[in-house]
Amino acid sequence: MGCINSVKPVAKSVLIVFAHQSSNSFNAAAKDVAVKELEKQGWTVTVSDLYAMEFKATATQQDIKGKLKNAEQFRYGDEIAAAWEAKTLSDDIAEEQRKITEAELIIFQFPLYWFSVPAIMKGWFDRVFTGGFAFSLQKMYDNGSFKHKKAMLSFTTGAMESMFLPDGINGDMNVTLWPLQNGILHFCGFQVLAPQIFWSPAHCPEPVRVAMLQNWEQRLKGLMTETPLKFASSELFDMSFQGGFRLRPDVVMERETQPHGITTGHHIGKPLPPNNQLKAPPEGTTGTN
Ligand SMILES: Cc1cc2nc3c(=O)[nH]c(=O)nc-3n(C[C@H](O)[C@H](O)[C@H](O)COP(=O)(O)OP(=O)(O)OC[C@H]3O[C@@H](n4cnc5c(N)ncnc54)[C@H](O)[C@@H]3O)c2cc1C
């Protein structure tokens, strides 16, 4: 029991989690490019088309098939972790977990909604990344359950790129991406590849849209050789309740002379390292420590 995620992923198996209502949308086109290109390269491609599946977005008691631990004081996190252990999760969650277990790579394809993923995809994270399966106190960040897998966000925006620059009206895209890339993907251990951002496809000319899809196809050819994004290693933190899981004082001191913080989130009061959530560190550098 409780070891489904320690199974080695099937080599060249990719899961695309897709959230768009329309098969003629730009998001669908980006998904189709990925399916076609990866299949051409010999990948086994599985698509979870969330709207087509009518995937349930709400985390409720119905997600547990067996007897509840405490029906009077229902606590979703406790109950869902126990259900994972007991193999009594609802069939739709178990099926998504099976797909994740097999996948070496997961691509999330979606339109940006309110600086985040659409609710149906957030519900997928809420329900499928259960305690025990996706994380535990011992298994998080670079010790996370999915440390042998890669994941990436591929998304469209309504806004143009300049609006998401550090001086743009929407603020820095690196900040927008931190909760998704650090708080969900890296938290669960994934090696996070740089996001693929299709800026404002609805407001640009057709040739620009075509070029964006061609660039995506080109990128997919070398995707698995890319260096993942940089996050602060767990080794830099005092991983105890007493230490509050904070950066060790010697690490903070060592950083005093550095021009930038460690990452977008771990900025330790310094200027953010530029494009930490958009680009991998330059070749030959290890990143954080
Ligand atoms: C609830 C909500 C919240 C939102 N929040 C945000 C936000 O916080 N920030 C933000 O920036 N935006 C936001 N948006 C806007 C949203 O992100 C964009 O509408 C979305 O990203 C556009 O992607 P699409 O796939 O729906 O585009 P579509 O409208 O489907 O496509 C754009 C264009 O591409 C064309 N196209 C389709 N296929 C192809 C192809 N193969 N080749 C060439 N062209 C093609 C289409 O015909 C269309 O002309 C929000 C929207 C909603 C509804």
The gist of it:
The chain has about 290 residues and is of the alpha/beta class.
Written account of the structure:
With about 290 residues, this protein is an alpha/beta fold. It has two domains: about 220 residues, 3-Layer(aba) Sandwich (Rossmann fold), CATH 3.40.50; about 60 residues, no CATH class. It contains seven helices and six strands; from the N terminus they run βαβααβαβαββαα. Strands 1, 2, 3, 4, 5 and 6 form a six-stranded parallel β-sheet that branches. Helix 1 runs parallel beside helix 6. It is globular, with a radius of gyration of 20 Å. Flavin-adenine dinucleotide binds next to helix 1 and helix 6.
Stated plainly, the CATH topology of the largest domain is called: Rossmann fold
Estimate the helix proportion, in percent. 25-40%
Counted by DSSP, the helix tally is: 7
Tell me the distance between the termini. 36 Å
User: If you average the pLDDT, what whole number results?
Assistant: 94
Shape assignment: globular
| Bound chemical compounds | flavin-adenine dinucleotide
Unreliable sequence segments? none
Structural class: alpha/beta
Tell me about the largest β-sheet: 6 strands, parallel
Number of domains: 2
Task: Give the ordered list of helices and strands.
Answer: EHEHHEHEHEEHH
CATH architecture descriptor name of the largest domain: 3-Layer(aba) Sandwich
CATH superfamily descriptor of the largest domain = Flavodoxin domain
User: What is the level 1 CATH name of the largest domain?
Assistant: Alpha Beta
Q: What does the radius of gyration come to? A: 20 Å
